[in-house]
Amino acid sequence: MSEDGDFKEKISAFIGLSRQNNDNISIKHEYLKLVKEFHPDANKEISKEAACEYMIIINYTYEQLLHNKNDFKPIKTDEYEKNKIDGKYCFINEYGVRELISDKIYYIYKMGRLEFFKAYSIMHRNPSFKGNKEKTGYEIIGHLYKAYKHYKDVIKMDKTGNWAKGALLHLRYAFKMNENITRGLSTSDEKGLTVV
Predict the structure, then answer these.
(1) Which of 24, 96, 102, 123 has fewest C-beta within 10 Å?
(2) What CA dihedral angle connects 183, 184, 189 and 194, to 10 degrees?
(3) What gap in Å lies between CA 60 and CA 68, rounded to an integer?
(4) Which segments of 22-125 does DSSP mark as H helices, in order?
(5) pLDDT tens digits for 81-124?
(6) What is the Cα–Cα distance from 53 to 148, expressed in whole angstroms?
(7) What is d(CA 128, CA 27) in angstroms, rounded to the nearest whole number?
(8) Which one, of 9, 51, 59, 12, lies nearest residue 32 by Cα?
(9) What is the spatial distance between Cα 148 and Cα 155, in angstroms, rounded to a whole number?
């Protein structure tokens, strides 16, 4: 089985197990096992880029399973069409100002940037997470996952490379931020698991 296939199988098993088990301690135990297996610091056999992608998905899945177990919905690839007004994409920027954008790739890029900067600003407003590491960390993870999905769509769709270069750069920043969040969230209270 391919590395990607193995990962998808393990994430599916994690979601299935979590839905059957309402015990958050067991869910956390399974999450930490996945972290140990796929975090770029813990597994040098997986490419760093793949490990970073896996960790964004793992963290988002874990956060959703803890807080939205019965309403877990992965982000659909092309949810952008629902935001069209008169043939243009409606984007609400960080200042609450509505922009109408005709270029779909640029619109998706801006969506990714907005989610990334939401995560970035939360992290910088709460550098020590002010005693609520898990709630703040998972809020950041939710925004990073959305940024990841938007940037991956830009990279996939942009044949000219104009927006893909910026998306790839911001995606790497998102991976780095996610790595740091994961280090901050893993604990040593689980027997037999190494802290990343």
Answers:
(1) 96
(2) 10
(3) 11
(4) 24-38, 48-67, 104-125
(5) 888 888 999 999 988 999 999 999 999 999 999 999 999 998 88
(6) 8
(7) 25
(8) 59
(9) 11
